[in-house]
Amino acid sequence: MLYPPIQNFIGGQFVPASSTRTLPVISPLDGQSLSTVPMSDRTDLDRAVTAATTAFASWSRTPIKERVQVFFRYKTLLENNLQELARLCSEENGKTIGESIAEIEKCIELTEFACSLPQLVTGEILEVSRGVECRTEHVPLGVVASIVPFNFPSMVPNWTIPNAIALGNCMILKPSEKVPLSSGRLAELLKEAGLPDGVFNIVHGDVEMVEAICDHPSIEAVSFVGSTKVAKIVYQRATSNYKRCLALGGAKNHLMVMPDAIPGMTAQNVSASMSGCAGQRCMAASAMVAVGEVDHIIRSIVDEARKIIPGENLGAVINRESKDRIEKYISEAEAQGAKVLLDGRGATVKGKENGTYVGPTVIDHVKPDMAVAREEIFGPVISIMRTKTVDEALAIENQSPYGNAASVFTQNGGVARYIMDRASAGMVGVNVGVPVPREPFSFGGWNESKFGVGDITGKSSIEFWTKLKKSTIKWNPEAGINWMS
Ligand code: NAD
Asked: With bands split at pLDDT 50, 70 and 90, how would you rate the model's confidence at 482?
């Protein structure tokens, strides 16, 4: 094992879990054993909640301008430790070092946003009648939980940690059991940045821990990021226990390519979007709808995708099960008559034979009812469907139960606007393969890609992590008595 067994992080200390059940942590890059992760139980969660509740008493009373000082220091620590964090991310998740560096850079941007929160959470005040004022202020919720997936071991935790904590909450993070290493390092950096003990805690585990979080009476809010299947379970369970919940789910993102799209730029964007992070991004292009005569662009996409080499500029998928599942999708589509223009099945990397790689895959002449067209594949695969008109393309996009992202590639502003208005997705792009809004804009999909109100990052997250206190104040005894008095 490359690293010692992982422990929970409670009250500012790494502590063993009370349960002895563990899972191995394996690197997708080469199959190397990295560590073991404990499958904690309700006793461990109780300990973390107690630590967080104790810390909340003084953290919530610390002025926000003071609270964000921790995150100014945390940002510097992320910068100073960028290479080490990127290496850890790559080892446990399988993405390339370049992608891992980009992930940590995104953590820095997320933290910068949290540092700006004092400027954004000023309340409102108005003299509502003579000598009487009303005011509103954002106050923290209490102990909150964040449950995260495997595909961004550092970035998705940082979607929630800086904002929720800067806004005065105390947090319990439940990392993915597949990538539990990065979050421990984040905990160390938060402590080094001066975050008081108990404000941030980590409890490792699987289904049992997620259920315990949804049931715990002292947890006020749960944010979840993961597959739609689990997002639905978590949203139902947390809200049925009267908690605030925002649950982000899976995706099937459509790129609509018009005949007038700029071929080189389109091909580069499409191939980067479908293959970045080995296709394991909720914003990845997974379906492309080719409108009219675009054979020349499809040829360029295949040429671009051919330049993506497993083990060089393409990382591994998370595990063997995932590799098998992705390859099965490709085989099924082929058996149903789709044409595999570039085939990533059976990819291996010399010297890393136990790694789990799938090469870039382009499948053409896919029918909208095939599984590769409808389901989330979460691998470096793009399924191309052909239509004659923009409305047919939109009908395909609109039929998807998901609604994370959609993009159009065209030089025609009218067509771009038409598609942006009608795509049933929370994040739309024009000539952009991965239309992720950057801070201060919020991240969040529609339909079965998100359950709950508001978005998880940016300004919209303020409403999720705080509640409004409304005060009516009269100091002046001369103030008039009116119908509200
Ligand atoms: P997952 O749903 O399997 O796991 C997410 C979390 O839920 C993990 O912490 C896991 O331990 C826990 N979990 C797993 N099964 C559970 C169950 N039955 N009951 C309760 N908890 C359970 O997701 P994943 O495979 O880790 O991540 C990939 C998925 O996440 C993809 O579908 C991807 O689209 C999605 N994702 C979405 C977004 C977004 O912004 N919408 C962002 C990143 C990832």
From this structure: low
